[in-house]
Design goal:
24 helices; mainly alpha; about 525 residues; about 70% helix; flat
């Protein structure tokens, strides 16, 4: 651990860097500078972190999100970049294996930032300031500065080109100091405080290792434990079992009785889900035919809601019965078979909802919620697989949450590699002759879609009505799609003029090269 004085120097340097590169700029190329500063700082403060096994994979995931942010510059890529940066920092500072505990430590860093900051300030000693060698460095610099100053004056009088360069530098410095006082406005000060908070939460580690120590006590594999009957009878779980099972929840036969209750429960639930799956297979898998009077929105949402309820219920029920020593009960074979059957039936239910979403996309086009359903189905499939592994290999609930947490991170990183707005626009425009097109929804997508819309003038000029969906509530100004497009294009170019090279990203560059800068027309003042 480095000294508090060094941490304070890095903190204030990071705050100033944040203020300079992000003020009135887009989050784009500037994140490369800030990211490099943060990572170099935390690795210098905690050099042992290089040896952690998860660090290489986390850094790889973080680099991927950094590239996607600069290339796509979408909200999802920015979210993925922020999440992976936080994970990298927290895994450097603490000993973690799970995303969830690491996230709790990250939240703790920010909640306790003020206390960490004041504690480091309090621990700074005068000797630490002297140890920085500032006075020593100044003494060594006095004579060289004087010599360079003399020759600087000689060269400025003898060389006119050098004199012109010096004058240009002087004018630039005058402009800099003239604009320096722009920093001292309330908005800039507030942004400076934001930078202090963001940088502080990343660089200053909270003093408590509570979540790290809590996770250290967790294991992936279940261990058979001998119950303390006195403590067991005082537990809430015993009260719950007693409420439903009475005296059968107590005594030497309690485990066998719980196994019997579990088998009966899973048989009944399997029969219920079998009936639902049989209906879906008959009417969704093989008997579906689209007609205009079919409400596909309700068709998909009903299936997804049922899936959510079923999977959550399955998780809780299975975790309840396979929470402890019942995993080691020799006669739990039929309980396991019932659990495997229920997992398989939930997988069939996933396929049913996947088909519903496929029909929705094929007949109505792509949209955020329809893509979200696909992402949710991937998470559900992974959840079912890990529940099966948990039961089959006697894993803990901690294992379940840890693996699914890492899968969520992988899915987030992978999803950030796709520009979804461009994908939605490309798909819908390519199928404009077979699906009802919500033009105003397309006009609400990010700037990367503007060249696609401009190349489809027939869509912008068509007199089309709104489709019941994502774009219905947007743009109630009464403007035509063509006018809305021209306004979007004008706003894009006007904003680009306010940015510097710090806001460079590939998506905006692509749009600028594909679109001609618009001229102001009369309808823009409406």
């Amino acid at each position: 651990m480095k000294t508090p004085a060094l941490k304070m120097v890095l903190l204030f340097a990071g705050t100033i860097l944040f203020n300079i590169i992000f003020w009135q700029e887009k989050i784009a190329l500037n994140v490369l500078l800030f990211d490099a500063f943060i990572l170099l700082s935390v690795f210098y403060l905690y050099p042992a972190a290089f040896t952690k096994p998860a660090m290489k994979w986390l850094l790889l995931a973080h680099v991927v999100t950094l590239v996607t942010l600069i290339v796509h510059n979408t909200i999802l890529s920015k979210l993925a970049f922020s999440a992976t940066l936080l994970l990298v920092v927290v895994f450097i500072q603490f000993l973690h294996r799970s995303v969830w505990y690491a996230a709790a430590s990250a939240v703790g860093n920010y909640l306790l930032f003020v206390f960490s900051f004041l504690e480091d300030i309090r621990q700074i000693k005068k000797g630490e300031i002297k140890s920085l060698g500032i006075r020593k460095a100044l003494r060594f610099l006095i004579i060289p500065i004087m010599i360079v100053g003399v020759f600087f004056l000689i060269y400025s009088f003898s060389n006119t080109v050098f004199k012109d360069v010096v004058n240009s530098i002087g004018i630039a410095l005058q402009h800099f100091f003239a604009r320096f006082f722009d920093w001292f406005n309330w908005q800039r000060v507030g942004f400076l405080m934001l930078g202090l908070f963001v940088t502080g939460g990343l660089l200053l580690k909270m003093k408590s290792n509570y979540f790290s120590e809590k996770e250290f006590s967790k294991h992936n594999d279940l261990r058979r434990s001998r119950h303390n009957l006195k403590k067991w009878k005082e537990a809430a779980m015993f009260d719950l079992l007693t409420l439903f099972m009475g005296r059968f929840a107590n005594g030497v036969m309690a485990l066998r009785n719980e196994n019997t209750v579990g088998i009966i429960s899973l048989v009944m639930l399997n029969i219920l889900l079998l009936f639902i799956n049989a209906i879906d297979v008959a009417y969704v898998w093989f008997g579906f035919s689209y007609t205009p009077d079919v409400n596909l929105t309700q068709y998909v949402h009903e299936g997804t809601g049922m899936l959510i309820f079923s999977i959550v219920l399955a998780m809780f029920v299975l975790l309840f019965f396979f929470r402890g020593n019942l995993n080691f009960y020799k006669k739990n074979k039929w309980l396991r078979y019932g659990a495997y059957g229920w997992i398989a039936q939930n997988a069939i239910l996933v396929v049913s909802v996947l088909l519903r979403d496929y029909y929705y996309i094929a007949h109505m086009g792509l949209a955020y919620k329809r893509i979200g359903v696909l992402v949710f189905l991937l998470m559900v499939l992974m959840g079912l697989i890990t529940v099966f592994i948990k039961i089959h290999q006697r894993k803990t609930a901690y294992y379940l949450w840890r693996v699914n947490g890492w899968f969520a991170v992988v899915l987030l990183v992978a999803a950030s590699c796709v520009h979804w707005d461009e994908t939605i626009a490309s798909y819908n425009l390519a199928h404009k002759n077979t699906i009802p097109l919500d033009v105003k929804f397309l006009l609400s997508l990010s700037d990367k879609t503007l060249p696609l819309l401009e190349s489809n003038q027939d869509v912008l000029n068509a007199k089309v009505g709104l489709v019941q969906g994502e774009g219905e509530y947007l743009y109630r100004s009464g403007l035509t799609p063509k006018e809305l497009f021209e306004i979007r294009k004008k706003i894009f170019f006007e904003k680009q003029k306010t940015y510097s090279w710090l806001s460079w990203n590939a998506a905006d560059t692509y749009v600028k090269t594909k679109l001609a800068e618009p001229v102001i027309t009369s309808f823009l003042s409406k």
